[in-house]
Amino acid sequence: FSAAIVITEQPISVSVPVGYSFALRCRAEACTSLQYQWFCQHQSVCCQIPGATEQDLLITAQQTQLYTCRINDIYKNAVFSNWVKVEVHQRIGRGLLPQLWRGEPVIILNPIEQKVEVGKPLQLQCAAMGVPAPSFQWYRNGNVLEHQKKKKLWINHAKVSDSGTYLCCASNSHGEHWTNAVDIHVGEPSQPTSGFNTLIPAEHLQFCCLVFLLATDKVALLVGNNHYQHHPNLMAPVTDVFDLSLLLKQLGFQVVSLLD
């Protein structure tokens, strides 16, 4: 006869900068003594962590990985904790993280203003660090978008009614933080003028307008590609674009930032 093993404290997902040290915690109860063993998974490969047999797993963040803990009793019964994600941000701009950070949400990527043609996809993106990892909620014109609760807001076929001012709230048990508000305009495609056989994409048109209007100023175009057809998704380009954008603005550049 053996009684059930009950997990009383599950580990939590976190989103932290590279080099940040913290502990994943797991607690369980049973009528017998218990043994703990932590596992990690990276790029679909799951492995046991040597020596990780304590209730707390001490980590210095190096790369994004998944973790779980197995708990055994003396009767060889075993249960696993929830899988949790340790999301690691490789490059964080100076001054973004408070000196005495307690884990409250910190926005590290803001959405970008866009002009989108009717029927084309609309994608907005943000990112935030936090311990626990923040949850996300998008708003349009101050109204909650019920089904937009991820870092990426995605609308397959944009409508004119999707135009408006968007922003996202990142929140966890320590508080909440809001992204910048951005204006999104969804309209009919522009008609080609004589000499042009194809329509100019909205992002390119926005950039060309800036070049003509600010011809005497310094203009920087930053393009960050995260997703490649034949290569694993990258993590650094988004934060690279954000960091470079801040730096170039301080140097007096007008900056246009595009993703993917």
Automatic annotation (TrEMBL):
Query: Among the record's GO biological process terms, what is one?
Result: proteolysis
**Gene Ontology terms for molecular function:** cysteine-type endopeptidase activity
Q: Is the keyword Chloroplast assigned to this protein? A: no
| A Pfam family hit | Ig_3
Which InterPro entries does this entry report, sorted A to Z?
A: Caspase-like_dom_sf, Caspase-related_regulators, Ig-like_dom, Ig-like_dom_sf, Ig-like_fold, Ig_sub, Ig_sub2, Pept_C14_caspase
According to the entry, every stretch annotated as the Ig-like domain falls at 3-81, 105-185
Q: Which residues form the Caspase family p20 domain?
A: 216-260
Keywords (A to Z) from UniProt: Disulfide bond, Immunoglobulin domain
| Protein's UniProt keywords contain Disulfide bond | yes
PROSITE patterns in alphabetical order: CASPASE_P20, IG_LIKE
Q: This protein is called what?
A: MALT1 protein
Source organism of the structure: Nothocercus julius
Q: Taxonomic lineage per UniProt?
A: Eukaryota, Metazoa, Chordata, Craniata, Vertebrata
